[in-house]
Amino acid sequence: MSKDFNEQFKSLQAELHASSKRDGAYDRMWKRVSTAIEDTDNVVSPATTLDYLQWLFFESISTPITIGAAMLVIVFGGFMTTVNAAQSLPGEALYSVKLATEKAQLKLSSLEHKAVLHTEFAGRRLEEASALNVSTDPAKTAQIKRTLDAYRSEVTQAGEDVRSLLNEKSTETMQVASAVDRKISVLNAEIDTRVQESDTNTLDIEDAKKATQAVSSSVVNVMMEEHETTSSNKLSDDIEKSFNTKLSDVQKKQSMVLGRLARIDEVVTVNKDLHIGGIVELRFAANETSVLMRSASDFAIAGGYRAAFDDLKVVDERLSEIANRIVAMEIVTTEFFANQKIEKLAEPVETEGQINSLRSDSTATSTISQ
Amino acid sequence: MLNEKFILFRIHRFRDKSAYAKLYERYHKNILDFASFKMPRKQDAEEVASEVFLRGWEYATSNRVDNIKALFYRIARNLIADFYRQRKVEDSLDELADVAADQEIEERIDLSESANKLIAKIRALKGDMSEVCVMHYINELSVKEIADILDKSPNNIRVILHRAKKALNK
């Protein structure tokens, strides 16, 4: 049966059909069916070309057009929603869409890309916190806190991803670590600006800053470990680039700190009633960080990047401490001018000289706050 | 296929009997063959096949149908199951087929000896094998078409066909 299997079936099929035809089975069946169908009402005219065209339109043209249009609406609508969601802030209706889009991006990304994405999302959280800070929403403090918590989580996750890359011996560890490190440096600088701008959530911002610095150290450690275990010119270039970026960051920070101290000193010199101590010590401490920066550069030139980064870390911490003390000085200065203004407003303004004096005070206040 | 869709449109929209006649012409042999393997007598098979087209008409004039071939086979399977249920056999269709195979089935004097032997072998196949075998080798349905009719995966059908072929070759 194996050889002519299909042939036997073909032959059987032919025999069955021939037999049914011979004994009139097909005719009997059709008679039964047609009689029953004829008994039903509604006899219609045979199909015309117009009928066919009408049907063809509904089946082949109208339905695909409808489906196409619906898909266009869905895709375009979805795109517009995503675009609008990208601008949304915590507490707004589309904010959950924004977070869902980010989650989807992370799900679809490789570990190498995830680490960088987390820093990007951390940047977004900082921008959101900043936007919330100027809003008039009474619940803004709680929202800023939640946003900064989310920032910390994103930054920490970026650090963990970089560490995972090292553990998995990924060939792109150094490249990713260096990209994350650059982003973290930017975030660090942004947080410093937020500290000066913010009037609420100062403790949350401090926590965010600490988390950023911790991740920065962790990423640098990863870079060091990778550099120490793998000797390659490319890795040395990456680490050198990273060191130079960090050095440039702390130099900028030092200039900023010295500039702010200079302005406070200027104001104190002009206003004899304003007593602020410690300016000279802070200026000295800020200048002193240059010694450590030079030492870090020397280590880097000699290839001792670990020691070089350690020095830069100390510099950064010292400058942050100085910056915090400067903030306290600026608050005292602002309060001083505010009190003076109130006192002068309480007195009747008599001469043009007094008005000019008030104007010059307000200019000094704005200079400090800048 | 487009032509068949147009026929179905005519039947559904205008209750067009001439359009239904075309469908009948296309499928009546297959349905009768299918029923012949399941029913004990030739007259029973004829009755079932006629009933399939009557019920098909009723359904197609009141509902939109995408796959009329699958509809005819499904109606046929249900009618065959009903036939055996009426004989007080309370079992599933697959088992009913086995029962049918075990029953006294008249030999077709109008067919050759080799044809009768092959029919007996096919009827003796267990479970879905007989049904799938008829659909594929006699009715010349594709694996996908059988899978659609029986609500099984194409792979499942291929396995059944393989077993059926093995059993028939013994």
TrEMBL record, chain A:
- Alphabetically list the UniProt keywords: Membrane, Transmembrane, Transmembrane helix
Q: Does the keyword Transmembrane helix apply?
A: yes
For this UniProt entry, which segments traverse the membrane?
Answer: 55-79
- Domain (DUF5667): give its ranges: 88-184
A Pfam family assignment: DUF5667
Task: Name the chain's protein.
Answer: DUF5667 domain-containing protein
From TrEMBL, chain B:
Sample GO molecular function, one term: DNA binding
- UniProt xrefs under Pfam families: Sigma70_r2, Sigma70_r4_2
GO biological process terms on file: DNA-templated transcription initiation
Residue ranges of every copy of the RNA polymerase sigma factor 70 region 4 type domain listed in the record: 117-168
Q: Which domain of life is it from?
A: Bacteria
Name the keywords, alphabetized.
DNA-binding, Sigma factor, Transcription, Transcription regulation
Q: Which residues form a coiled coil?
A: none
**RNA polymerase sigma-70 region domain location:** 23-88
Q: To which protein family does this belong?
A: Belongs to the sigma-70 factor family. ECF subfamily.
**Official protein name in the record:** RNA polymerase sigma factor 70 region 4 type 2 domain-containing protein
Source organism per UniProt: Candidatus Uhrbacteria bacterium CG_4_9_14_3_um_filter_41_35
